[in-house]
Amino acid sequence: MSEQELKQENVAENTEELEQPEVQAEEAVADPLEEAIARVQELEEQLADAAKKEQDALLRARAEVDNIRRRAEQDVEKAHKFALEKFSKDILNTIDNLERALATPANKEDDAIKGLFDGVELTLKELLATVARFGIEPVGVVGEAFNPDLHQAISMQPTEGFETNQITTVLQKGYLLNNRVIRPAMVMVAA
């Protein structure tokens, strides 16, 4: 090889060496920039995920508060509706006794006894009207279809004039308080 060819080869090598650091410098500058951009994108995704989770948690918390409020309102409503339940059960005995008094076979022709019966009958009517104003209703009527939710069957007997599962005799009236059974009616049912 000639000297001139050697010089050209050296110049070419030196030129390549000079170009390589520039490329490496550009790559070095590009890599941190790309890393920074990738990191920013990653952080933005994490921020979006965190925002979604926070929004979801907020919606769940609001729903839970609404559910608690609704349950509390229902509990208060039930407390108002059924606060009289114990009192109602106790007053039913008085109603039963007044009905029994009116059902006794006595000489209703006598003025003294007739006045007594009329007084008991008026007292019973007033008591029934009063309890009806507070949502207490009697259940169990002869001829009505037997309903195990409202009636308690004491016995089943074949009875003429009645269809199967029809109430033939009411032994004790049942009562509802705001459509809730406080005492089922004791009945006899046709078989």
Structural features, described:
The termini are far apart. The longest helix is centred in the N-terminal third of the chain and has 80 residues, at 3-82. This protein is rod-shaped. The strands form 2 sheets. A 3-stranded antiparallel beta sheet has the order 1-4-5. It has a 3-stranded mixed beta sheet with strand order 2-6-3, with no helix packed on it. The chain has helices spanning 3-82, 85-103, 111-133, and strands spanning 136-139, 151-157, 167-172, 174-177, 180-183, 185-190. It is built from 3 helices and 6 strands, in the order αααββββββ. It is an alpha+beta fold and 191 residues long.
What does the average pLDDT come to? 85
Total number of helices: 3
Shape: rod-shaped
Instruction: Detail the poorly predicted runs.
Output: none
Sheet of most strands: 3 strands, antiparallel
The topology string of helices and strands comes to HHHEEEEEE
Structural class: alpha+beta
What is the number of strand segments?
6
The end-to-end distance, rounded to whole angstroms, is: 129 Å
Estimate the strand proportion.
Answer: 15-25%
Helix content: 55-70%
- Rg over CA atoms: 46 Å
Strand order of the largest sheet: 1-4-5
Biased composition (Acidic residues): 14-29
Coiled coil: 33-78
Organism: Actinobacillus porcinus
Biased composition (Basic and acidic residues): 1-10
